[in-house]
Amino acid sequence: MLSISADQVDACLDYAELVQTLGEAFRKGAVQPVRHHHNIERPEGADSTLLLMPAWSDFSRLAGDDSGYIGVKIAAVSPDNNAIGKPAVMAVYLLMNGTTGEPLALIDGQRLTAWRTACASGLAASYLARKDASKLLIVGAGALSPMLARTHSAIRPIDDIRIWNRSSENAEKVAETLSAEGMNASVAGDLDAAIGEADIVSCATLSTVPLVKGALLQPGVHVDLVGAFTPTMRESDDEAMRRASVFVDTHAGATKEAGDVVQAIAAGALTADDIKADFFELTRGEKPGRTSDDEITLFKSVGAAIEDLAGGIAIYEKHR
């Protein structure tokens, strides 16, 4: 069995290429039960969440091998980790032979998660962001923040990146990282003002209160919501969901787990039927993405096991 580190994951993946890989995976499909959530209570601080995400499929087979693959990600989300300088998400990914169950690879799950999450946003942007979108606002300064900037820049002609975070010091660190890579990146001091100026707003936080206000969204903006992976979390308000054409990664996951969607439905600002399409429908051409330059589009990402499986297979096949 291969053991594939975070550095090895980084070395073999490319943002634009993985966006295409994810699109192919959704077109072909996979079996992916809705992920399991388990709340882990802690005597002090915020509770942690244990996530189990299985999937299996025979897409992207090895030449001459029709056995397919089984994969499962085991992840723990601990919000208090940020205070001690550790990522909120810790994970490992186990890839197995689809027929025998033989373990093939144990992959660093944090890097796989970060890559596939960022590239899922890139896949959404390829259908939903304006072709000329050049101003990107990243809300949140966690480990995913620079990766979202890179993947959006691989999909659209981004030439102005602003980073907003409750801690401006952390936002400055992300801006410095991106600037060192040759990107035009700076810190956004006022979130509301930055939202009103952006072509793409990409939000990756652990917020339980709305940060993206619908009243501030300008015609033609694309909103990318990556955080809020439980029904009690949210990054946008009801007005944002009401004004936008809403798209999701999977209908089943978003309507059950995504706080932005679940809470908007409960408030009457959105219905399940209002959701325009998910990735399966977009990638198969069954539903359209953006239909006009003035349309406000919103993508809610919850995370799907098919994304981990597709990324895990891609990584394994480059290392075997």
UniProtKB/TrEMBL annotation:
InterPro entries per UniProt: NAD(P)-bd_dom_sf, ODC_Mu_crystall, ODC_N
Pfam families linked to this entry: OCD_Mu_crystall (PF02423)
Family under the similarity heading: Belongs to the ornithine cyclodeaminase/mu-crystallin family.
This protein's name: Ornithine cyclodeaminase family protein
Organism name: Nitratireductor aquimarinus
